[in-house]
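Sorry, can you check?
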Amino acid sequence: MDSPHVIDPAFAGMSFAEVCALALQQQAQIKHISAVNAKMAHEMAVLKRPKFAATSERFSPKQKSLLEEAIDEDLAALDREIGKLKHPAKEPREKQTPKRQALPAHLPRRDVHHEPESSTCATPGCGCQMRRIGEDVSEKLDYEPGRFSVERHVRGKWACAQCHTLVQAPVPACVIDKGIATAGLMAHVVVAKYIHHQPLYRQEGILGRAGFAVPRSTQAEWIGAIGVELDPLVQAMREDLLKRRVLHADETPAAMLKPAGMRDGKTHRAYLWSYCSTAWDDISAVVFDFAESRAGHNARRFLGIAEDGTGGWRGTLICDDYAGYKQVMNTGVTEAGCLAHARRKFHELWANHSSTLAEQALKLFGTLYDIEREAKDLTHDERLRIRQLKSRTAADLLHAWLIANRQKVPDGTTTAKAIDYSLKRWAALTRFIDDGNLAADNNRIKNLIRPITMTCS
């Protein structure tokens, strides 16, 4: 016997149409909650990926093992241990000479001679004087860490006995008057900090082990003095950049400590705005402009554009979709988008959720990048011809795919946002196809700014 149906009291007295309307409302709520959950799951995966997964954006089934170097070290150690064991006698084989790479000829050589203690023949009953008939030479690579030395500047005093005139050579110019460091030592500290990512406290220990510990406060003073002396060079580089028709631009956060008298003595987020020439310019220059905020007027100020939009640089700026750049776009600067930013949104979907749609998008983006690799080293006209011939077709195919799949994806999902980003900026993203001087993405400035971001992290 069938059990009687239990009707929820909430539906009592409701008509069929009202029940259907309520069902549709709840179905819409469920769809919205599902979209929100998918969005939160994607954001969590993106945040966890830098810590627990590989950060490379390469789209390849072959992933290089993070333990490859450790594995090679273990294998080498095992080979040495096995080599020490006694092996049973084997049939003699032809000796194979190992092919070791020759050491570079430009490296300085220091000979260490090894000769017998006596040149008299030690054979019993002989005692003849031996003569040298040749030698065997083997080369070993050596490295000597930095050593301190003292550079003594001796300025002779010359006097005239008759008129008592005193003549002496002037003191050589230096970065810090009466400072103890040579320009070479100060340059070493700057390169170690900003290129090799060695903080000053670590350099203090390294220099101490080399024979003379330079306090980090002294090193900081050196870096500040160098910054002041290099300012004219930076201004000259900025003036040269502003003569270029195409520039890359990006910004990255940097920690800034304000003195207690100026604010609260705490660390605040400032920004380094970066501008550089293209890969095809006759110079390779990058200028970092420090600003206390990420406001768009910082970019306008660097480009020399007045608040009313007059004057300043007018060219094509390759940048991301950050709203701060819109201030300069509104004054007549042409915007060129970054194809890597658009691709990255699909790569995150593929890496974090194994999205098949994202995989299709990555393949279409990959076609555009294959063409760019082909045209990278060509002349401007030839690069433009290749782009018009091949990139335009590949871009149109990608655009059609984005439009077709956007209609299948619910609003608010991460996939929809990835597609919308590319569609909204399509004109800027594909502007490089019609200009051989434009890069397809902003990776050039990203690579130049990376040493700074690693130093600040």
About this structure: Residues 16-52 form the longest helix (37 residues). The radius of gyration is 34 Å.
